[in-house]
Amino acid sequence: MILKKKIISFILPSLGGGGTEKVYLNLALYLFSKGYEIHFVLLEKKGELLKYLPIEIFVYSLNKKRFRNSIFSLVKYFKTQKPNYVLASMWPLTSISVISWILAGKRCKLFLSEHSNLTETYLTSKIENAFFLKLLIRITYPYVNGVICVSNGVLEDIITMGRLKRDKIKVIYNPVTNDRFNNDIVNEIPDFWRDCSFKILSIGRFVSQKNHALLLNAFCILRKSLDVKLIILGDGPLYLQTKEYLNKLGLVDSVIMPGFTTDTNPFYYHSNLFVLSSNFEGLPTVLIEALDYGISIVSTDCPSGPAEILSNGIYGTLVPVGDAEKLAFAMQQSLLNPRDKISLKGRAKDFSVEKMSELYLSMFLNF
User: Domain tally for the chain?
Assistant: First the structure.
Protein backbone atom coordinates (compact mmCIF):
# COMPACT_ATOMS: atom_id res chain seq x y z
CA MET A 1 0.00 0.00 0.00
CA ILE A 2 1.41 3.39 -1.03
CA LEU A 3 0.85 6.10 1.56
CA LYS A 4 -0.47 9.37 0.19
CA LYS A 5 1.86 12.33 0.71
CA LYS A 6 0.74 15.04 3.09
CA ILE A 7 -0.25 18.21 1.20
CA ILE A 8 0.96 21.66 2.22
CA SER A 9 -0.74 24.54 0.39
CA PHE A 10 0.34 28.17 0.12
CA ILE A 11 -2.30 30.77 -0.73
CA LEU A 12 -1.05 33.98 -2.35
CA PRO A 13 -2.29 36.57 -4.86
CA SER A 14 0.54 35.62 -7.27
CA LEU A 15 4.20 34.60 -7.35
CA GLY A 16 5.67 38.00 -8.09
CA GLY A 17 9.16 38.96 -7.02
CA GLY A 18 8.31 40.47 -3.64
CA GLY A 19 9.81 39.49 -0.30
CA THR A 20 6.79 37.46 0.83
CA GLU A 21 6.71 35.47 -2.39
CA LYS A 22 10.45 34.71 -2.12
CA VAL A 23 9.93 33.47 1.43
CA TYR A 24 7.16 31.12 0.30
CA LEU A 25 9.27 29.88 -2.58
CA ASN A 26 12.18 29.05 -0.26
CA LEU A 27 9.83 27.41 2.23
CA ALA A 28 8.05 25.40 -0.46
CA LEU A 29 11.27 24.10 -2.01
CA TYR A 30 12.56 22.95 1.38
CA LEU A 31 9.32 21.21 2.36
CA PHE A 32 9.13 19.61 -1.09
CA SER A 33 12.62 18.19 -0.50
CA LYS A 34 11.33 16.69 2.76
CA GLY A 35 8.72 14.65 0.90
CA TYR A 36 5.59 16.82 1.13
CA GLU A 37 3.28 17.48 -1.80
CA ILE A 38 3.28 21.24 -2.36
CA HIS A 39 0.46 23.31 -3.82
CA PHE A 40 0.50 27.02 -4.65
CA VAL A 41 -3.02 28.44 -4.80
CA LEU A 42 -2.92 31.81 -6.59
CA LEU A 43 -5.58 34.36 -7.45
CA GLU A 44 -3.89 34.53 -10.82
CA LYS A 45 -1.17 32.29 -12.23
CA LYS A 46 1.45 34.94 -12.83
CA GLY A 47 4.70 36.23 -11.40
CA GLU A 48 8.45 36.21 -11.96
CA LEU A 49 9.06 33.38 -9.49
CA LEU A 50 6.87 30.80 -11.21
CA LYS A 51 9.80 29.69 -13.36
CA TYR A 52 11.73 28.55 -10.27
CA LEU A 53 9.10 25.98 -9.26
CA PRO A 54 9.85 22.32 -10.08
CA ILE A 55 7.21 20.76 -12.31
CA GLU A 56 6.27 18.46 -9.41
CA ILE A 57 4.89 21.41 -7.46
CA PHE A 58 1.25 22.05 -8.34
CA VAL A 59 -0.01 25.54 -9.15
CA TYR A 60 -3.76 26.17 -8.92
CA SER A 61 -5.11 29.39 -10.35
CA LEU A 62 -8.41 30.73 -9.01
CA ASN A 63 -8.56 33.03 -12.06
CA LYS A 64 -9.84 35.94 -10.02
CA LYS A 65 -8.66 39.53 -10.08
CA ARG A 66 -10.53 40.61 -6.95
CA PHE A 67 -9.97 39.05 -3.54
CA ARG A 68 -13.65 38.92 -2.63
CA ASN A 69 -14.51 36.99 -5.81
CA SER A 70 -12.22 34.12 -4.80
CA ILE A 71 -14.24 32.84 -1.81
CA PHE A 72 -16.16 30.06 -3.52
CA SER A 73 -13.24 29.07 -5.75
CA LEU A 74 -11.23 28.56 -2.57
CA VAL A 75 -14.08 26.53 -1.05
CA LYS A 76 -13.96 24.26 -4.09
CA TYR A 77 -10.18 23.89 -3.76
CA PHE A 78 -10.45 22.91 -0.09
CA LYS A 79 -13.12 20.31 -0.84
CA THR A 80 -11.57 18.75 -3.95
CA GLN A 81 -7.84 18.80 -3.20
CA LYS A 82 -8.14 18.17 0.55
CA PRO A 83 -4.84 19.71 1.71
CA ASN A 84 -3.56 18.82 5.17
CA TYR A 85 -1.97 22.14 6.05
CA VAL A 86 -2.67 25.53 4.51
CA LEU A 87 -0.71 28.76 4.92
CA ALA A 88 -2.35 31.96 3.67
CA SER A 89 -0.77 35.39 3.50
CA MET A 90 -1.46 39.02 2.49
CA TRP A 91 -4.59 40.55 3.96
CA PRO A 92 -7.41 40.54 2.89
CA LEU A 93 -6.60 37.15 1.33
CA THR A 94 -5.94 35.85 4.85
CA SER A 95 -9.45 36.69 6.08
CA ILE A 96 -11.01 35.46 2.83
CA SER A 97 -9.16 32.15 3.24
CA VAL A 98 -10.66 31.78 6.72
CA ILE A 99 -14.18 32.36 5.38
CA SER A 100 -13.65 29.80 2.60
CA TRP A 101 -12.12 27.31 5.03
CA ILE A 102 -15.13 27.58 7.35
CA LEU A 103 -17.58 27.19 4.46
CA ALA A 104 -15.65 24.10 3.32
CA GLY A 105 -16.06 22.52 6.75
CA LYS A 106 -12.61 23.18 8.27
CA ARG A 107 -11.20 20.04 6.63
CA CYS A 108 -7.56 20.93 7.24
CA LYS A 109 -5.34 22.95 9.52
CA LEU A 110 -5.27 26.61 8.50
CA PHE A 111 -2.49 29.03 9.40
CA LEU A 112 -2.17 32.70 8.55
CA SER A 113 1.09 34.56 7.99
CA GLU A 114 1.57 38.27 8.62
CA HIS A 115 4.52 39.89 6.83
CA SER A 116 3.80 43.55 7.47
CA ASN A 117 2.85 45.98 10.18
CA LEU A 118 -0.83 46.31 9.33
CA THR A 119 -1.42 49.34 11.54
CA GLU A 120 1.30 51.29 9.71
CA THR A 121 0.05 50.04 6.35
CA TYR A 122 -3.56 51.11 6.86
CA LEU A 123 -3.15 54.22 9.01
CA THR A 124 -2.16 56.03 5.82
CA SER A 125 -5.23 54.76 3.94
CA LYS A 126 -8.87 55.74 4.19
CA ILE A 127 -10.24 55.46 7.72
CA GLU A 128 -13.03 53.11 6.60
CA ASN A 129 -10.40 50.71 5.26
CA ALA A 130 -8.66 50.72 8.64
CA PHE A 131 -11.97 50.06 10.40
CA PHE A 132 -12.84 47.26 7.97
CA LEU A 133 -9.38 45.73 8.49
CA LYS A 134 -9.75 45.59 12.27
CA LEU A 135 -13.28 44.23 12.02
CA LEU A 136 -12.39 41.45 9.58
CA ILE A 137 -9.32 40.39 11.56
CA ARG A 138 -11.27 40.26 14.83
CA ILE A 139 -14.03 38.22 13.16
CA THR A 140 -11.86 35.74 11.23
CA TYR A 141 -8.40 35.31 12.81
CA PRO A 142 -9.53 33.72 16.12
CA TYR A 143 -10.85 30.64 14.28
CA VAL A 144 -7.59 29.47 12.68
CA ASN A 145 -5.11 26.97 14.10
CA GLY A 146 -2.34 29.55 14.34
CA VAL A 147 -0.95 32.87 13.16
CA ILE A 148 2.70 33.24 12.15
CA CYS A 149 4.32 36.68 12.40
CA VAL A 150 7.67 37.49 10.82
CA SER A 151 8.85 39.72 13.69
CA ASN A 152 7.99 40.59 17.27
CA GLY A 153 6.89 44.02 16.11
CA VAL A 154 4.36 42.48 13.74
CA LEU A 155 3.21 40.14 16.52
CA GLU A 156 2.52 42.99 18.94
CA ASP A 157 0.69 44.89 16.22
CA ILE A 158 -1.60 42.00 15.26
CA ILE A 159 -2.39 41.23 18.92
CA THR A 160 -3.40 44.84 19.52
CA MET A 161 -5.36 45.14 16.29
CA GLY A 162 -7.05 41.73 16.37
CA ARG A 163 -7.33 41.23 20.14
CA LEU A 164 -5.84 37.78 19.65
CA LYS A 165 -4.57 35.37 22.27
CA ARG A 166 -0.80 35.00 22.39
CA ASP A 167 -0.94 31.20 22.59
CA LYS A 168 -2.13 31.09 18.96
CA ILE A 169 0.65 33.29 17.62
CA LYS A 170 4.30 32.49 16.95
CA VAL A 171 7.17 34.54 15.55
CA ILE A 172 9.11 32.80 12.79
CA TYR A 173 11.61 34.88 10.87
CA ASN A 174 11.71 34.78 7.09
CA PRO A 175 13.78 31.88 5.72
CA VAL A 176 16.42 33.26 3.35
CA THR A 177 18.80 31.45 1.05
CA ASN A 178 21.70 32.83 -0.93
CA ASP A 179 20.54 31.49 -4.30
CA ARG A 180 23.26 31.90 -6.91
CA PHE A 181 21.68 31.48 -10.32
CA ASN A 182 25.15 31.33 -11.91
CA ASN A 183 28.78 30.95 -10.90
CA ASP A 184 30.20 34.02 -12.60
CA ILE A 185 29.11 36.77 -10.23
CA VAL A 186 32.71 37.68 -9.39
CA ASN A 187 33.19 38.87 -12.96
CA GLU A 188 29.70 40.32 -13.38
CA ILE A 189 30.25 43.70 -11.77
CA PRO A 190 27.62 46.09 -13.17
CA ASP A 191 29.26 48.51 -15.62
CA PHE A 192 27.81 51.46 -13.74
CA TRP A 193 29.94 50.60 -10.70
CA ARG A 194 33.28 50.05 -12.49
CA ASP A 195 34.62 53.58 -12.10
CA CYS A 196 33.78 54.53 -8.50
CA SER A 197 35.39 54.00 -5.09
CA PHE A 198 32.27 52.95 -3.20
CA LYS A 199 29.22 51.02 -4.39
CA ILE A 200 25.88 51.37 -2.59
CA LEU A 201 22.87 49.10 -3.15
CA SER A 202 19.21 49.40 -2.20
CA ILE A 203 16.41 47.01 -3.17
CA GLY A 204 12.70 47.62 -2.77
CA ARG A 205 9.45 48.40 -4.55
CA PHE A 206 8.88 52.00 -5.47
CA VAL A 207 6.08 52.70 -3.02
CA SER A 208 5.76 55.41 -0.37
CA GLN A 209 6.56 52.91 2.41
CA LYS A 210 10.15 52.53 1.16
CA ASN A 211 10.82 56.31 1.20
CA HIS A 212 13.29 56.39 -1.69
CA ALA A 213 13.20 60.19 -1.56
CA LEU A 214 14.92 60.01 1.83
CA LEU A 215 17.60 57.74 0.37
CA LEU A 216 18.22 60.10 -2.53
CA ASN A 217 18.39 63.13 -0.23
CA ALA A 218 20.94 61.37 1.97
CA PHE A 219 22.94 60.23 -1.05
CA CYS A 220 23.00 63.82 -2.30
CA ILE A 221 24.72 64.81 0.95
CA LEU A 222 27.06 61.81 0.94
CA ARG A 223 28.45 62.27 -2.56
CA LYS A 224 29.87 65.66 -1.56
CA SER A 225 32.51 63.83 0.51
CA LEU A 226 32.94 60.42 -1.16
CA ASP A 227 33.24 58.98 -4.66
CA VAL A 228 30.05 56.90 -4.54
CA LYS A 229 27.45 55.46 -6.88
CA LEU A 230 24.03 54.07 -5.98
CA ILE A 231 21.94 51.37 -7.63
CA ILE A 232 18.28 50.96 -6.61
CA LEU A 233 16.63 47.73 -7.78
CA GLY A 234 12.88 47.29 -7.99
CA ASP A 235 9.72 48.43 -9.69
CA GLY A 236 6.42 49.86 -8.52
CA PRO A 237 3.92 52.68 -8.95
CA LEU A 238 6.31 55.44 -7.82
CA TYR A 239 9.14 54.41 -10.15
CA LEU A 240 8.71 57.29 -12.62
CA GLN A 241 8.10 59.82 -9.86
CA THR A 242 11.30 58.72 -8.12
CA LYS A 243 13.20 58.94 -11.39
CA GLU A 244 11.98 62.50 -11.88
CA TYR A 245 13.11 63.39 -8.36
CA LEU A 246 16.50 61.81 -9.06
CA ASN A 247 16.84 64.04 -12.14
CA LYS A 248 15.75 67.10 -10.16
CA LEU A 249 18.53 66.47 -7.62
CA GLY A 250 21.10 66.20 -10.42
CA LEU A 251 21.99 62.59 -9.64
CA VAL A 252 21.72 61.16 -13.15
CA ASP A 253 25.43 60.32 -13.33
CA SER A 254 25.65 58.73 -9.88
CA VAL A 255 22.34 56.87 -9.38
CA ILE A 256 20.60 54.33 -11.62
CA MET A 257 17.32 52.44 -11.26
CA PRO A 258 17.54 49.37 -13.55
CA GLY A 259 14.13 48.04 -12.53
CA PHE A 260 13.24 44.61 -11.17
CA THR A 261 15.58 41.62 -11.48
CA THR A 262 15.29 38.09 -10.13
CA ASP A 263 19.08 37.72 -10.05
CA THR A 264 20.28 40.21 -7.47
CA ASN A 265 23.43 38.24 -6.68
CA PRO A 266 25.97 40.28 -8.71
CA PHE A 267 24.66 43.47 -7.12
CA TYR A 268 24.94 42.13 -3.59
CA TYR A 269 28.32 40.56 -4.28
CA HIS A 270 29.98 43.74 -5.53
CA SER A 271 28.36 46.33 -3.25
CA ASN A 272 30.15 47.93 -0.29
CA LEU A 273 27.01 49.02 1.53
CA PHE A 274 23.32 48.13 1.62
CA VAL A 275 20.82 50.81 2.63
CA LEU A 276 17.17 50.52 3.67
CA SER A 277 15.28 53.81 4.00
CA SER A 278 11.76 52.56 4.82
CA ASN A 279 9.13 54.24 6.96
CA PHE A 280 7.90 50.84 8.14
CA GLU A 281 8.43 47.15 7.42
CA GLY A 282 7.41 43.68 8.63
CA LEU A 283 10.72 41.86 8.41
CA PRO A 284 12.79 43.19 5.48
CA THR A 285 14.24 40.10 3.82
CA VAL A 286 16.73 42.22 1.87
CA LEU A 287 18.62 42.97 5.10
CA ILE A 288 19.07 39.26 5.77
CA GLU A 289 20.24 38.73 2.19
CA ALA A 290 22.77 41.55 2.63
CA LEU A 291 24.04 39.94 5.85
CA ASP A 292 24.44 36.66 3.97
CA TYR A 293 26.92 38.43 1.67
CA GLY A 294 28.73 40.09 4.57
CA ILE A 295 27.77 43.58 3.40
CA SER A 296 27.76 46.50 5.84
CA ILE A 297 24.21 47.77 6.41
CA VAL A 298 22.57 51.08 7.25
CA SER A 299 18.83 51.01 7.92
CA THR A 300 16.15 53.24 9.32
CA ASP A 301 15.03 52.04 12.74
CA CYS A 302 11.48 51.66 11.50
CA PRO A 303 8.70 49.48 12.86
CA SER A 304 9.31 46.64 12.57
CA GLY A 305 12.10 44.22 11.76
CA PRO A 306 15.39 46.05 11.16
CA ALA A 307 16.28 46.31 14.86
CA GLU A 308 15.49 42.59 15.31
CA ILE A 309 17.55 41.52 12.31
CA LEU A 310 20.50 43.76 13.22
CA SER A 311 20.26 42.99 16.96
CA ASN A 312 19.66 46.64 17.85
CA GLY A 313 22.71 47.85 15.97
CA ILE A 314 25.22 45.05 16.59
CA TYR A 315 25.17 43.90 12.95
CA GLY A 316 24.36 47.20 11.24
CA THR A 317 23.73 50.88 11.83
CA LEU A 318 20.23 52.06 12.70
CA VAL A 319 19.15 55.67 12.13
CA PRO A 320 15.91 57.55 12.83
CA VAL A 321 13.18 57.38 10.21
CA GLY A 322 13.09 60.44 7.94
CA ASP A 323 16.45 62.00 8.91
CA ALA A 324 18.51 62.45 5.72
CA GLU A 325 21.55 63.98 7.45
CA LYS A 326 21.89 61.15 9.97
CA LEU A 327 21.36 58.61 7.22
CA ALA A 328 24.09 60.23 5.11
CA PHE A 329 26.51 60.32 8.05
CA ALA A 330 25.85 56.66 8.88
CA MET A 331 26.42 55.71 5.24
CA GLN A 332 29.73 57.59 5.21
CA GLN A 333 30.96 55.98 8.42
CA SER A 334 29.90 52.51 7.30
CA LEU A 335 31.77 52.87 4.01
CA LEU A 336 34.94 54.12 5.69
CA ASN A 337 34.73 51.58 8.53
CA PRO A 338 33.08 48.42 7.15
CA ARG A 339 31.91 45.72 9.54
CA ASP A 340 33.46 42.29 9.83
CA LYS A 341 32.12 40.08 7.02
CA ILE A 342 32.45 36.83 8.98
CA SER A 343 30.36 38.21 11.82
CA LEU A 344 27.64 39.41 9.44
CA LYS A 345 27.51 36.09 7.60
CA GLY A 346 27.28 34.30 10.92
CA ARG A 347 24.22 36.35 11.84
CA ALA A 348 22.61 35.45 8.51
CA LYS A 349 22.75 31.76 9.46
CA ASP A 350 20.17 32.47 12.17
CA PHE A 351 17.70 32.93 9.31
CA SER A 352 18.62 29.87 7.25
CA VAL A 353 15.95 28.16 5.16
CA GLU A 354 16.45 24.87 7.00
CA LYS A 355 16.17 26.42 10.46
CA MET A 356 13.12 28.57 9.73
CA SER A 357 11.34 25.94 7.62
CA GLU A 358 11.63 23.39 10.40
CA LEU A 359 9.94 25.89 12.72
CA TYR A 360 7.09 26.25 10.22
CA LEU A 361 6.79 22.48 9.94
CA SER A 362 6.78 22.08 13.72
CA MET A 363 3.93 24.59 13.96
CA PHE A 364 1.94 22.80 11.25
CA LEU A 365 2.27 19.47 13.04
CA ASN A 366 1.85 20.55 16.65
CA PHE A 367 -0.63 23.44 16.76
Answer: 2
